[in-house]
Amino acid sequence: MKRVLSVASEAVPLIKTGGLADVVGALPEALAGQGWQMRVMLPAYRGLLEKLGKTKIVWADDYLFGGPGRLHLGKFGEMEVMALEAPHLYDRDGGPYSGPHGDYWDNAERFAALCWAAAMVAREGAGDWRPDVLHAHDWQGALAPAYLRYAGASVPTVITIHNMAFQGRVGATKMGALRLPPEAFHRDGFEFWGDISTLKAGLTTADAITTVSPRYAEELMRGEYGQGLEGVIAARSGVVMGILNGIDETVWDPENDPDCKPFSANKLAGKSHARKALQAEFQLEKKLSGPLAILVSRLTAQKGIDLLPAAVEELVAAGGGLALLGSGDHWAENMVRDLALRYPGRVGVHIGYNENLSHRMFAGGDAVLVPSRFEPCGLTQLYGLRYGCVPLVAAVGGLADTVVGATPASLAAKAATGVVFHPVDDLALRQATRQLCALYADRKGWAAMVKRGMKTDLGWGASAARYAALYERLLAQ
């Protein structure tokens, strides 16, 4: 079995702040079926080693970016984990990237240390294990392929962009601290408007670049999505490819979900029960004649939260309602609270995040709103399809790649699985919401669309095969 080392800042179920963790945690099992053994290298944040239980030391460095570092090999379930213990970098209160007072001042060094360790394992091995391919994720893992390239190592490397908005940008004065060669500080290296971009370092040195959807790979070559690195992606377009994320269909399974009564595409009675329960939980009117929409999201401008009033107005006019779960910017939290006050019994809001509640919402919702201005892949719409919660999405990134919009042609062909709108503004969202309500009113047609979505293949099988084929191609080269 061939070997691949995955380098990332988070992975479910050990540590999660977003969709990156879901992907990194799901890939090892998916790739095992393709003949690849994947080990995941993570920082040993406070409490992580205790979750792993019994481990063994497979690599050590007495001076790893300011202190000693040791690499622990362990398992969590079936996932093999290499946890980098470096207390001076990772043993802290707070999350992976920030504490009570904001982002950690030395995040660049913290993740450079992770990348340095990964590069050393790729070059020299750890114990009796050495990877055939190194796979880095986002800016936190991006220096790993760069360190290998700068050292002249021949290990094939891949970097996956989960969100181009986060680039690991720091001042050029940190060049020495990050162990970066001054001769690579130029526009074709890791220099970015006079600063260092650790993401750019990976994009210019990795043998292959992937994004989490084909549409996003194309969008990143354009100024409105490329975040200043569109030229790098365009210049390297020959090695750029989009591979869709999947979801864990054992975790997101309406037939075996402990948070709701079981239901399936062929037996939807449990979904009706979940709808009533959701209305009660969010204190919504019992008799809604229109669709009960849900929104589970970070509350930021990127997610199109400022456009919500237009959609809510249309939902309420059609006899529907909205249940919302999320947290984020203060202005957005205040705005959605105001919507709940303006439409009592029609809009319910829970500020925060609760995984179990999100399952209940997908089970009970008729539709899920995803009006994002950009979305590399998105998992929310996939959960919606899986649970018969019809997605209403903007025509961007992975949203456009995974939802078949209801048009006269797609409806006639019995292919539609949701509603897709463009451009991303309140007028287009208002029109899309009207279309959603009209589709819902056709109960027979709506039921058919719900069932089509639930029968869509959303797992990791096809995507894992594409990753495996990419690894094989890099090895052959």
UniProtKB/TrEMBL annotation:
<dbReference type="InterPro" id="IPR001296">
    <property type="entry name" value="Glyco_trans_1"/>
</dbReference>
<dbReference type="GO" id="GO:0006457">
    <property type="term" value="P:protein folding"/>
</dbReference>
<dbReference type="InterPro" id="IPR011835">
    <property type="entry name" value="GS/SS"/>
</dbReference>
<keyword id="KW-0320">Glycogen biosynthesis</keyword>
<dbReference type="GO" id="GO:0009011">
    <property type="term" value="F:alpha-1,4-glucan glucosyltransferase (ADP-glucose donor) activity"/>
</dbReference>
<comment type="pathway">
    <text>Glycan biosynthesis; glycogen biosynthesis.</text>
</comment>
<feature type="binding site">
    <location>
        <position position="16"/>
    </location>
    <ligand>
        <name>ADP-alpha-D-glucose</name>
    </ligand>
</feature>
<dbReference type="InterPro" id="IPR018370">
    <property type="entry name" value="Chaperonin_Cpn60_CS"/>
</dbReference>
<dbReference type="GO" id="GO:0005978">
    <property type="term" value="P:glycogen biosynthetic process"/>
</dbReference>
<dbReference type="GO" id="GO:0004373">
    <property type="term" value="F:alpha-1,4-glucan glucosyltransferase (UDP-glucose donor) activity"/>
</dbReference>
<protein>
    <recommendedName>
        <fullName>Glycogen synthase</fullName>
        <ecNumber>2.4.1.21</ecNumber>
    </recommendedName>
</protein>
<dbReference type="GO" id="GO:0005829">
    <property type="term" value="C:cytosol"/>
</dbReference>
<feature type="domain" description="Starch synthase catalytic">
    <location>
        <begin position="3"/>
        <end position="234"/>
    </location>
</feature>
<feature type="domain" description="Glycosyl transferase family 1">
    <location>
        <begin position="282"/>
        <end position="438"/>
    </location>
</feature>
<comment type="similarity">
    <text>Belongs to the glycosyltransferase 1 family. Bacterial/plant glycogen synthase subfamily.</text>
</comment>
<dbReference type="Pfam" id="PF08323">
    <property type="entry name" value="Glyco_transf_5"/>
</dbReference>
<keyword id="KW-0328">Glycosyltransferase</keyword>
<keyword id="KW-0808">Transferase</keyword>
<dbReference type="Pfam" id="PF00534">
    <property type="entry name" value="Glycos_transf_1"/>
</dbReference>
<dbReference type="GO" id="GO:0005524">
    <property type="term" value="F:ATP binding"/>
</dbReference>
<comment type="function">
    <text>Synthesizes alpha-1,4-glucan chains using ADP-glucose.</text>
</comment>
<dbReference type="InterPro" id="IPR013534">
    <property type="entry name" value="Starch_synth_cat_dom"/>
</dbReference>
